Amino acid sequence: MTSISLLPKFDISQNYLLNPIRVTLGLWVKEAMALVRAEVVLKKPVTFVTGNAKKLEEVKMILGNSIPFSTLRVDLPELQGEPEEISKEKARIAAKQIDGAVLVEDTCLCFNALHGLPGFEKWFLQKLGHEGLNNMLAAYKDKSAYALCVFSLALGPGFEPTTFVGRTEGKIVPARGPADFGWDPVFQPDGSDFTYAEMPKDEKNKISHRRRALDKVRDHFREYDFVVRNDDSQV
Ligand SMILES: O=c1nc[nH]c2c1ncn2[C@H]1C[C@H](O)[C@@H](COP(=O)(O)OP(=O)(O)OP(=O)(O)O)O1
Ligand SMILES: [Mg+2]
């Protein structure tokens, strides 16, 4: 059995100006705790599961080999509900399907004038098109929107998924740029003159909802010691 215990977070920042002895002690405790990071034993590497090739491409670009994972293209059901719940349920389904640890994500585009709708399922964009998305906001002055990405990590079937949320603020504009990835042409992030679609890939990946969520996933992998071992004490 895998035992995962949460280590208390140790914040030494406030000690710096106060007392050098406490700083030294603080650093020592922090290092000692890093040595006893909780070990999470898996029987195979975490598999990132998605049916979307473009998503997969971005996840690979952002993560590189910073965490050990493999990928699998499987069409997961389009679920409805609140973003975190959709993402968790996807993880439960995927963990059962592949009988192992999985990482999945669900992405939404949310309009503030519509209190977070349309959220998104892939059929929605296919039927409405970019013009339809703009038309949805025609009756409103407020064109602001946000892109939301929720990753879920499930260590195996029956494990409660952990979620990691990334969010990027922006606005909805008439489509500009290549139309090869979802609603990228109509989403212009705040602070940029370009839509996601007009940006070079590495620029989108610096500020995107997906990047922000993956930074948290990466931190989580640093906090625990994920080891792949195929013996009886595995997940
Ligand atoms: O960065 C993005 N930039 C533009 N469009 C995006 C992005 N990320 C997802 N999308 C689109 C794809 C799909 O039309 C819809 C729902 O996304 P979502 O259900 O999460 O993806 P999906 O069904 O294509 O793949 P999956 O198998 O991982 O569920 O939003
Ligand atoms: Mg989907």
Report on the architecture of this protein.
The longest helix has 16 residues, at 20-35. The chain has one domain: Maf protein (Alpha-Beta Complex). The protein starts with 19 loop residues before the first helix and ends in a 7-residue tail after the last strand. It has helices at 20-35, 53-63, 83-98, 122-136, 201-207, 209-223, and strands at residues 39-42, 46-50, 69-73, 102-111, 118-119, 144-154, 162-172, 187-189, 225-228. Helices cover 34% and strands 23% of the residues. 27% of the residues are buried. Strand 6 (144-154) and strand 7 form a beta hairpin. It has six helices and nine strands. It is an alpha/beta fold and 235 residues long. Strands 2, 3, 4, 5, 6, 7 and 8 form a seven-stranded mixed beta sheet that branches. Magnesium ion binds next to loops.
